[in-house]
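Students often ask why we bother encoding 3D structure as a string. The short answer is that it lets us treat folding as translation between two languages. Here is a chain of 182 residues written in the first language.
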Amino acid sequence: LIEAMVAITIVTLAVTGPLFTASRAIVAAQMARQKLTASYLAQEGIEYARAMRDNEYLAAYQAGGTNISTAAWTDFLTGSSAGSITQCRTTACTLDPARSMGSGSGFALQPCSGASCTPLYLANGIYTEQSGIAGSVQTPYTRTIQAIDVSANDVRIVSTVSWSFHGNPYSVTVNDHLMPWQ
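And here it is in the second language, the structure alphabet:
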């Protein structure tokens, strides 16, 4: 009887170790996938702000005149157009790339309402804030964009994606500096 109990203990230990290791590897792979997705979503926020600045420059260039770069930079920072980051200079904004800049569906950058921002949904392979799209599934991610003035010709764009995994909060933040075209 003692030999049988020792044999069962040895077999149990031999099986439990690899199973524990496998479960930890699965959790680590899930976490790595979520961090990678979050870093891509944060970088998308930076790229979107850069595209807004570039669109303002192209609009000013097409309009012509003098000091095109200065006019475009001013419109990007404080203008009322869809390419302006005015609302994101005082509060965090959310980004929904499924909305185009200033189309009838609203601006892609919008201030967060209240203390929280809208979570992202995955619909047709696109991360969006719109839950009403057919087949959309809520994700654990929330993205915020904020513009912080560094100087008159330098704005730091901070794109943060946060989520919760197994009850623990995580976030990825990407920073970039935007300056006027010279």
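Translate back mentally: Residues 102-106 have pLDDT under 50 and may be disordered. Keep this in mind for the problem set.
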